[in-house]
Amino acid sequence: MYKIHLDEVKSTNTWLLDALNKGALFPDETVVWTMRQTAGRGQVGNSWEAEPDRNVSFSMLLMPDFLAPHDQFVISEITALSVAHEVDGLIKWPNDIFVNEGKICGILIEHKLQGGKLSHSVLGIGINVNQTHWIGSAPNPTSLKLQTGHDYNPEEVMDGVIRRISAYYRQLRANPEEVRHQIHEEFLGRLYRKEGWYPYVDAATGEAFEARIVGVEADGRLILQPQADSANATLPAVRTYWFKEVKFVLPCGVTKE
Prior knowledge:
- The chain is of the alpha+beta class.
- Helices cover 25% and strands 30% of the residues.
- The chain has 2 domains: 3-189, Bira Bifunctional Protein, Domain 2 (BirA Bifunctional Protein, domain 2, 2-Layer Sandwich); 198-256, no CATH class.
- The chain is built from 5 helices and 15 strands.
- The chain is globular, with a radius of gyration of 18 Å.
């Protein structure tokens, strides 16, 4: 495994993607990491706040050309599972990691398609390790230190996640069909709010409704079963949502995609 340490960078994902676009050649499973990321990127233009020297941000390059483009969600699954196991958290669909209703990790995965295959995938991961205060508007951040009261070595936390990703990835490469289904079942088993009925908001219509998670399609769509209203005992039809099409309502009352 090839690791590149940067003293400070705006975004490890941006740095790695820029290098690739300029023709740089890196081996599969290259990792670019820093403890000083100044402009971390999240999903759909969101930012990621990371206090310098107290957290770790890194990007891992995979070259999963053995996967068809429609199977790319499995890369999100192995990434989320690896972090969830390392920090003992649950996966909030599609790939945020929650511990006790607090977000401890953000994940941004960017794929490049070429010749009908996945040319490369860049897995951007930010883990809140020793941070205890945030100045931004994130509704529910937490960290390993807040959860346990202990300080951690951010590089060691990162290395644990990398080892897990690498193990999943190599198993997947060796036997894509069988392992992909095993990973999907494990992903479903660690979903945040997998059991029970919870409030959601439809992002397009603003409709608030109670639902339970039925599952996740292989392409990443969330399947929700809305609850029946008091006037009708029959359950409504299930709904499927792409990322950002539905919002979770957190215990603090804030909605979160």
